[in-house]
Amino acid sequence: MALHWSTTRTLFALAGIGVVAGLAGAVVMNHKPVPQPPAFQPATNPYAQGLYANGIVESDLPNGSNINVYPEVAGTVAAIAVQPGQAVRRGDVLLRLEDSVARAQAAQQRAQADAAQAQFEQMQAAPRPEALRVAESQVASASAAAFAQRNAFDKQKRAAEIEPRAVSRDALDAAHDAWQLAQAGLATAQRQLDLVRAGTWSADLRVQAAQRDAQRRAADAAAATLDKYTLRAPADGVVLAIQASAGSYVTPQGVYGTYTQASNQPLLVLGGAPGHLDVRCYVDEILIPRLPPGDRIRAEMSLRGSDARIPLEFVRVEPYVSPKIALTDQRQERVDVRVLPVVFRFDAGKAPRIYPGQLVDVYIGARSGS
Question: Which of 15, 35, 196, 247 maximizes the CB count within 10 A of its CB?
């Protein structure tokens, strides 16, 4: 009897616990938490008949986009002369590539051009005084030899006339031949003297001048190639990004992006001078008829992640409708949608912190009036 009563009490206790747990669960499930206020208000179109477009912030440049700097030759980065955010002037050195081979080739070409020029000047200055004196001495020597052979022949001839048996016919012929040979030697020496006095032939000068000019052009080409190993700023602006470091190997196709895994990243990116920034947005082709004329366009942009609304100044419409691409320009969308680029400007000094490359929401409306 006692055991039966204990079991009954246990069952009643468990049932009570179950009832309490059920009531507590019902209270918890029916409790509605108070919603937290949003970190920022969702962006809305401020214009009744406004258009919406995605935009990307760019530097304020005449062509409306940042300047991507690629090397014209391949090589290893030897030194970087600038830092991100640094202002540069047109022609300032940005980066140097290792150029020992190109420098040696340029020096060789210049030496060959100098040698060709020196040879041309030598040919122009002909005859050399030393060569002229040698030729004159050879003429004098040949003349003396011819005179001596003539005297020897005359002596033997007179001896033969006095006493025919005193000189043989062979000896007389040999003396005559020696005299004739000496005469020919004198004539050759005289012609050599005339050649030395005449200097370089004009046709030879033209050939040497052409070779000299060719060597000069080769040297200029080698120097121009060497200069391409030094990258300079193509315009005034600010260094926005540097995609390589000392020791990196780069090509005219760009560099390999460690994070983007793309092989055509620009070596450096230059933006316009600080002060103003541009916003390039793309208006869908089906919305182009609703785009107001340029003198009536008004627009503002919304920064994602903030309540900031920044008025925009219309700059231009780039009148070429092209296929829509992702704003990162990494891929082309599969859907055949075409868009019209519209560029706006804003004062960066009056806006929150914002950087080129940032994505924004752009709302375009029309000013009231005609």
Answer: 196
Structural domain includes residue 78: yes
Domain region containing 142:
127-199
Evaluate whether residue 42 is within a structural domain. Answer: no
Q: What distance in Å separates the CA atoms of residue 278 and residue 354, rounded to the nearest whole number?
A: 11
CA distance linking residue 111 with residue 105, whole number of Å: 10
Q: Is residue 43 part of a domain?
A: no
Q: Residue 317: which H helix or E strand, with range?
A: strand 309-317
Q: Enter the tokens of residue 114.
A: 């100098």
- Is there a single domain that holds both residue 164 and residue 182? yes
HSE-up of 123 (CA within 13 Å, CB side)?
A: 17
Considering the domain architecture, whether residues 139 and 193 belong to the same structural domain is answered as yes
- Strands across the sheet containing 268-271: 67-69, 268-271, 237-242, 87-88
Question: Last residue of some domain: 271, 297, 326?
Answer: 271
| Distance from C-alpha of 169 to C-alpha of 183, rounded to nearest angstrom | 21
How many domains are contained in the chain? 5
The 10 Å Cβ neighbour count of residue 94 is 20
User: pLDDT per residue over 99-136, tens digit each?
Assistant: 999 999 999 999 999 999 998 888 888 887 887 788 88
Burial label, 100 (beta-carbon count in 10 A; 0-12, 13-18, 19+):
exposed
Q: Is residue 264 part of a domain?
A: yes
* pLDDT tens digits, one per residue of 217-260: 999 999 999 999 999 999 888 898 898 889 889 999 888 766 66
- Give CA 136 to chain center in angstroms: 61
Read off the DSSP letter of residue 247. Answer: T
The first and second tokens of residue 166, run together, are: 């005193």
Give dist(CA 178, CA 133) in Å, integer: 26
SS3 295: helix
User: Do 337 and 278 share a structural domain?
Assistant: yes
Structure tokens belonging to residue 47: 């214009």
